[in-house]
Write a structure and sequence with these properties.
Elements (H helix, E strand, L loop, with lengths): L1 H20 L3 H58 L13 E3 L7 E2 L1 H10 L5 E3 L1
This protein binds zinc ion (2 copies).
Length: 127
Amino acid sequence: MDGDNFETNPDEAEGLQNIDQSPTDDDLSMLIEECEKLLEVEKINKQQNKCNWKKRMENLSTNWESCRQNIFHTVLSSAAANIDTCSRCLVNKCVIYCQECPDPKSLCSACDEEVHHKYPLHDRDGI
Ligand SMILES: [Zn+2]
Ligand SMILES: [Zn+2]
């Protein structure tokens, strides 16, 4: 009787040992929980990054809004020059280019009259 028990016990022990070595359901669920926690933390981090990114983009677009106004005017004035608009009134087509006027050099006939009423000796070219 004792001998029989002694013979069967090692097999059982071996079987138990094998089970101990492989992860049990408890271990697995704990591992999964651990992973989920890590994922949660990562998710939160990502969300925070997104928030920061969003904020940065908002700041950027705010800066851009203020910049765009300047760029718009710069582009507009250069475009105006390109399409031969009077650089004084920015409305009429320029017909006169004055070599001696300090700034608005390309003038429409109306502005030319106004400006060169005072300076009739300016050297002007027709465009
Ligand atoms: Zn003009
Ligand atoms: Zn002039």
